[in-house]
């Protein structure tokens, strides 16, 4: 692809992330606004930190869900942290999945929690794949 | 950044209007156990001219003040290991710290926020911090 085509591809991928509800445009734009020559990779750094946060929180949820009896209060705490993390980069679908999980938590429904946990993992993996492709394309377009 | 529609012109406008960069520097302390939040909040504050230090928990923040560090404003998370925001705020006020202390939390419960306020906060905001939340605080520091 030439430079123009790459740029169009970047814009298309970006627009899709917003239109398909994966990312909140306002939050991403705020992060991009902060990126400057002194911190040229700020957005990617923040997204990497989101990946680390998410991996840790997903592991914590897994461990807590596997304990008997299920500690719904602990689960609620972890999901609360996860929601906060999602808000920082505008990860809308993952955040919504977390909200759904918390409803099951509040109802003391372990089966519901397990099901929504699968959704959280699915949405997170999809977002991660899409973001990794997006940033890869941004790098290619810059280099072209 | 490629695809960041309109971001660079709004960023330039904001920094050139910023009163802090024209006058003496203001010092801010960001206290949060989440590295992603510390990174984002630091960048937001630096973008409007603050000199920023970070602490990973309430004890680190209190220790900074004990060693004689001074800050115009402190942004402090409520839930942190070692020493949480509530205990740290109480400790700072007991030490006669006069900095503006702003609680930053993802908790929505009015009761929890009230307990945090009672510890000695000047204000309490919901995470994440945004320009819209920072600018009025900046203007207030300028007036005083």
Largest sheet of chain B: 5 strands, parallel
How big a fraction of the residues of chain A is strand? under 5%
* Global structural class of chain A: mainly alpha
Q: Residue-averaged pLDDT of chain A, rounded?
A: 94
The largest inter-chain interface, given as chain pair and residues per side, is: A-B, 32 and 24 residues
The largest sheet of chain A, given as strand count, sense and whether it forms a barrel, is: none
User: Percent of residues of chain B in helical segments?
Assistant: 40-55%
What's the count of strands of chain B? Answer: 5
How is the quaternary structure best described?
A: heterodimer
CATH topology of chain A: Four Helix Bundle (Hemerythrin (Met), subunit A)
CATH superfamily of chain A: HPT domain
Could you say what the CATH architecture of chain A is? Up-down Bundle
Main CATH class of chain A:
Mainly Alpha
Secondary-structure element order of chain A, N to C: HHHHHH
Q: Round the Cα radius of gyration of chain A to an integer and report it.
A: 17 Å
| Overall helicity of chain A | over 70%
Helix/strand-derived class of chain B? alpha/beta
Structure described in brief:
The complex is a heterodimer of chains A (144) and B (144). Chain A has helices at 3-19, 25-34, 42-66, 72-89, 92-106, 110-143.
């Amino acid at each position: 692809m030439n430079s123009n085509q790459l740029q169009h591809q970047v814009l298309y991928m970006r627009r899709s992330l917003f239109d398909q509800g994966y990312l909140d445009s306002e939050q991403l734009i705020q992060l991009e606004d902060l990126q400057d020559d002194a911190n040229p990779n700020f957005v990617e750094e923040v997204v990497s930190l989101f990946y680390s946060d998410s991996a840790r929180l997903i592991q914590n949820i897994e461990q807590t869900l596997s304990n008997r009896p299920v500690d719904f209060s602990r689960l609620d705490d972890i999901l609360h942290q996860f929601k906060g993390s999602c808000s920082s980069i505008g990860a809308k679908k993952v955040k919504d999945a977390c909200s759904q999980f918390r409803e099951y938590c509040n109802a003391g429904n372990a089966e519901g929690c397990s099901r929504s946990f699968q959704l959280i993992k699915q949405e997170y993996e999809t977002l991660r794949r899409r973001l990794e492709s997006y940033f890869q394309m941004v790098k290619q377009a810059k280099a072209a | 950044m490629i695809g960041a529609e309109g971001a660079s012109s709004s960023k330039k406008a904001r920094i050139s209007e910023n009163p802090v960069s024209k006058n003496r520097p203001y010092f801010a302390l960001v206290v949060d156990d989440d590295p992603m939040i510390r990174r984002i909040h630091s960048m937001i504050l630096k973008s409007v001219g603050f000199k920023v230090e970070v602490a990973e928990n309430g004890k680190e923040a209190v220790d900074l003040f004990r060693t004689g560090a001074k800050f115009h404003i402190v942004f402090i998370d409520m839930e942190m290991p070692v020493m949480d925001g509530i205990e740290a705020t109480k400790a700072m006020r007991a030490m006669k710290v006069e900095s503006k202390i702003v609680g930053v939390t993802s908790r929505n419960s009015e009761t929890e926020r009230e307990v945090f306020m009672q510890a000695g906060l000047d204000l309490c905001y919901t995470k994440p911090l945004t320009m819209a939340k920072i600018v009025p605080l900046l203007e207030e520091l300028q007036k005083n």
